[in-house]
Amino acid sequence: MTGFLNISRDGHVVTLTLNRPDKRNAISSAEECAEVADTCRALNRDDAVRVVIVTGAGSAFCAGGDLKGMRDKTGITGGNSGAEIRESYRRGIQMIPLALYEMDVPTIAAINGPAIGAGLDLACMCDIRIASESARFAESFVKVGIVPGDGGAYLLPKVVGMSKALEMSLTGDAINPAEALACGLVSRVVAPDDLLPAARDMAARIAVNPPQAVRLTKRLLRESQHMRLSTLLEMSAAYQALAHGTRDHREAVDSMLEKRAPQFEGR
């Protein structure tokens, strides 16, 4: 572990804080990428975890990649040949979307400041995005003469639509929170001091529901993005059979009929 992540837990909610404020939480090394990916995989295996919040320490959410590393061909952009750089990406930053985006646990990005390049793509890997009024967003790879190498070309169009994704990717220009809200990049914009409370409130509203049903619902929504309706309906039927067989489903129905608060066990 590199200490890139600060991990805190409050009941069923885990908060992951990118903890390199001196570097504006830029992602610099394969070890940092592995720490994020390994943490996400471990949390996904933990049935007690119902929501994960991702945020940044200091003034930035994540400034993307390390420009000095790009210049010196070190870290996640290291290599003396095209083949070596390709493997650096595959074994480094690309591990994060494969772990974070594919989590069954719901994730909330609490975007406290600039989310630039890989930082914006990191936010797009999360399910829900809440922004501080001090946030800024840019798909800025073109500004440094490279392409989105971490899945941004897949993620951003699914969040904001192809036209807006192309505008952001081809200009590299930054947008403010109001523009991000208007194009659906974020679902809420709040004052800086209200950001984490808003994310925790959202997490609590999710975590109160039956956790297996929540995870299955998230997976259905993820898979729906690249499935035919008929295929998704088959998957929905199978998932519904699983959900109907849980104790939490019975508890949810019983508690509604008995007009009392439910007690979900995750079983």
From TrEMBL:
Coiled coil: none annotated. It comes from the Bacteria. GO terms for molecular function: catalytic activity. This is Crotonase/enoyl-CoA hydratase family protein. InterPro entries: ClpP/crotonase-like_dom_sf, Enoyl-CoA_hydra/iso, Enoyl-CoA_hydra_C. It comes from Neoroseomonas eburnea. Belongs to the enoyl-CoA hydratase/isomerase family. Pfam families: ECH_1.
